[in-house]
Amino acid sequence: NNSTQEGIQETSNWSSWPIGKSIEKKGFNTDGKKAAALEFKLPVGSYKAVLTSNDRFGNKITAYLPVMVCDMKSKKFAVKLPEYYVEKNSTVEAGDKFAAFWGTGYETGRAFVEIVHDNKYVKRYWTAADETSHFIEIPVPEQYRGGFRVFTTFVRENRLYSNSTLVNVPWSNKELDVKFETFRSKLLPGQD
Three-state DSSP class for 144? Predict the structure, then answer.
C-alpha cells in the first residue's frame, strides 16, 4: 500500500494501479468488423475495463482499458491522485471551444493556468483556492487559427506537475477546391 499522509497514491500513473474488485460484467458479441457498444453507469473514480475474448484459434486474449470518470461540475476531485489533466480534443475549429479538466486528490491544491497565442499570454490565472478540480473552457476566435497553447502548473510535496497542450486550430476556411481543365484552340494560324 503506497500512500502519503492524505492517502494519495504514490504513483502518478493511475492506469497502472492494480485491479480492484469487479463492479459489473457484460457479455458482448461482434462480427469482427463492427465495434460493440457497452454502456455502464459508473460513479466518479478510476476504473479498468477488462475485455476477454478468444482469438480465431480459440486462445484466450485479454485487453485492459483504463477509464477515469470525473464530475466536471464538482469543486472537488474525488480520486486520490496527485494530479490529473485531460483535454477533450487537441484540434478545435475557430468558433468552437477548447475544453480540458484539471484536478488533484489532495485536500487543497491550486493550479496556475496559462493560455498562450503567438508567443503572448492571452490569459493567466490561478484556480480557486477552495476547489481541487477545475474545468478549463476557452472560446476559440478566428485569430487563434494556426494554434495556441494551454499550460497548467501545480506544485505539491516538492514535486512539479506540469502539462502543455498544443491546440491545433486549422485553416479550414482557407481550403481551396482546385480542379484542372484544359482548353485547346481550334483556330488555324492567321485566323481572327
Answer: helix
Q: 86 forms bridges with which residues in the sheet?
A: 101
Q: Please enumerate, as own/partner, the contacts of 125-128 that have beta carbons within 8 Å and a separation of 24 or more.
A: 127/102, 128/75
Burial class (CB in 10 A: 0-12, 13-18, 19+), 177: exposed
- pLDDT per residue of the chain (192 residues) written in tens, 0 to 9: 344 445 555 566 777 777 778 878 888 777 777 877 888 888 898 888 888 888 888 899 888 888 888 888 889 998 888 999 999 989 999 999 999 999 999 999 999 999 999 999 999 999 999 999 999 999 999 999 989 999 999 999 999 999 999 999 998 866 667 788 888 778 888 887
Residue with cell string 489533466 = 85
What letter does residue 57 receive in the DSSP assignment? T
Instruction: Assign 3-class secondary structure to 134-154.
Output: EEEEEECCHHHCCCEEEEEEE
CA atoms lying within 13 Å on the CB side of residue 94: 12
Residues 132 and 77: their CA atoms lie apart, in Å, by 6
DSSP letter assigned to residue 121: E
